[in-house]
Amino acid sequence: MFQSLIVNILALVVTLGILVTFHEFGHFWVARRCGVKVLRFSIGFGKPLYSWYGKDGTEYAIAPIPLGGYVRMLGQDDLDTSADRDINVEEREQSFNHKPLWQRFAIVSAGPLANFLLAILIFWLINVMYGQRGVAPVITDVESGSPAWEAGLRSGGEIVAVDGEPVNIWQQVTMQLLGRLGESGDLVMEAIPEGEISAREYRIPVQNWLAGSTEPDPIRSLGLERFVIPPVIDGVTDDGRAREAGLQSGDRVIRAAGEPVDSWMEWVGIIQAHPELSLDVTVQRAEATVDLTLVPERGTDAEGNEVGFIGAMARPYDVPEELRRELQFNPASAVLPALQETWQKSVFVLESIQKMVVGLISYRNVNGPITIAQVAGETAGYGLEVYLGFLAILSISLGVLNLLPIPMLDGGHLLYYTIEAIIRRPVPERVQAMGLQIGLVVITGIMVLAIYNDLNRLF
After folding, report:
1. Phi-psi sector, 338: left (phi>0), alpha (psi -120 to 50), beta
2. Could you give the CA distance from residue 326 to residue 406 in angstroms, rounded to a whole number?
3. Residues 162, 178: contact at Cβ < 8 Å?
4. With CB atoms 3.0 to 4.6 Å apart as the test, which of 15, 36, 70, 141 could cross-link to 31 if both were Cys?
């Protein structure tokens, strides 16, 4: 437990450190190109733990609170008006507020743009090093009576497009479906039925689809099975009900609650549906069959629903060769898919924020530093490819959030500059002061909500 906590904290510091450094370096680099004197470049907030001065006269600092950073420029002020009135005449040319509007606009927008550039670079690196790998979106099974079943989808079919967007692997199907969370209307899938060569169109009606879900599984919610993971136990926890019942690594569950079990998901569904209820379970162990009695422990899922759990893990599953999809890239061909993925995920993040604001999806999806630390620690343990993917998505989220027109954020300053360009004079100080107070309330509220959600997930 303590070791996991240390790993999560270190992963959080490293992850936020990378993102903040890129973001603030964007501001810094463009400011220097525009001739603005940078007084301090700080990674983290608070009194610097360590600082030094560069040949350019800038103080570079590392501060103890790793939740952000800042670039402090000569003449810069929260209220973007006459902050350079007390600057020496010879320094006015290096003052931020003395610069033309287009240069101030470029300096402020450079931070979020640096985050998008980082995401493009990461996706490009993943494409070059690993390519794009995944499982073909072939439907293994369709739950009878489910939305997908009612629409006419059947096992053996291969999904080739979702809402008009071509898909090649299950991850792409999932991303397209996640973009429809909270919406009403028809999900339009194109799939090639088994034994046929032409795609058919299938329409699945949804109403406020998964609006309250914090851990949505859009594919399973439609009744689709991606590929069957055998119900084979890989390991059990020391203090779980699985060990109490006598389940062992290597056991293959063949019957539970009087029903045959053909997949791990069926096994999980049975366990979750029977909290604190006795289950008769039959497993295949080596050459023999063993009958056990299992009582799943009562718990709650992310939605607060009562479910059973036993403390058992699935054995890693090798996807059949015919279902594997791999696409390799060279440094040149990897650029376009990196740009496309960054754009698609940026749109997804922006649309998700909009849906949260209007109530189409749950506010419980707002994550704070605790969740970020946990995910960063977990993805780091899964390997470099997974961690880099998480870092890219987080960088995109930071870029999008900073472009929102909220005072205190980069987007709020850009809004003021846009108004200034229209009315040909700076936004009045009184208006900016009011906006600053509103922005402080909004940002504080978001942080409180994020930490509240984090604590709810923990407890």
Report:
1. alpha
2. 42
3. no
4. 36
Ranges of residues in the chain whose predicted pLDDT is under 70: 1-4, 77-90, 302-304, 458-459
CA 141 to CA 152: how far, in whole Å? 12
> φ, ψ for residue 166 (rounded to 5)?
-60, 145
Two structure tokens written together for 33? 């190109």
DSSP 49: S
Residue 195 Ramachandran class (φ > 0 left, ψ -120 to 50 alpha, else beta): left
The helix or strand, by DSSP H or E, that contains position 376, with its residue range, turns out to be: helix 369-382
Phi, psi of 417 (to 5 degrees): -65, -35
Render pLDDT for 166-191 as a digit per residue (tens, 0 to 9).
999 998 999 999 999 999 999 999 99
Measured CA to CA, the distance from residue 219 to residue 223 in angstroms comes to: 7
Q: Where are the alpha helices (DSSP H) in 82-236?
A: 101-129, 147-151, 170-178, 218-221
Encoding tokens for residue 144? 């009878």
Residue 24 annotated as catalytic: yes
d(CA 449, CA 441): 12
Which uninterrupted H or E stretch holds 30? helix 2-33
Strand partners, 224: 142
Residue from 107, 118, 123 nearest 16 by CA = 118
Contact yes or no for 263/269 (Cβ under 8 A): no
Using CA atoms, how far apart are residues 267 and 20, in angstroms rounded to an integer? Answer: 43
Backbone angles phi, psi at 183, to 5 degrees: -95, 165
CA gap 294, 282 in Å, rounded? 10
Q: Using an 8 Å Cβ cutoff, are 223 and 139 in contact?
A: no
**Rounded to whole angstroms, how far apart are CA atoms 48 and 7?**
24
Query: Residue 50: enclosing H or E segment and its boundaries?
Result: strand 50-53
Do 306 and 296 form a contact (C-beta atoms < 8 A)? no
Residue 387 zone, left/alpha/beta (φ > 0; ψ -120 to 50; rest):
alpha
Annotated active-site residue in 24, 183, 190, 225: 24
What SS3 class is residue 60? strand
Side chain identity at 234, as an amino acid letter?
Answer: D
CA distance 27 to 70: 9
- What DSSP string describes 280-315? EEEEEETTEEEEEEE-PEEEE-TTS-EEEE--EEEP
| Whole-number pLDDT of residue 91 | 74
Inter-residue contact 414 to 408 (CB < 8 Å): no
